[in-house]
Amino acid sequence: MCEGKIVSGLEIMVRYRCKVCGGTGIVRNPLWQEWDESIGREVPSGPEADWNGFEVRNKAWWSSRGCQKEPPEEVECEECSKGWVIRWVPISDVMRKAF
Ligand SMILES: [Zn+2]
Question: What is the C-alpha separation between 19 and 62, in angstroms, rounded?
Answer without folding.
Answer: 29
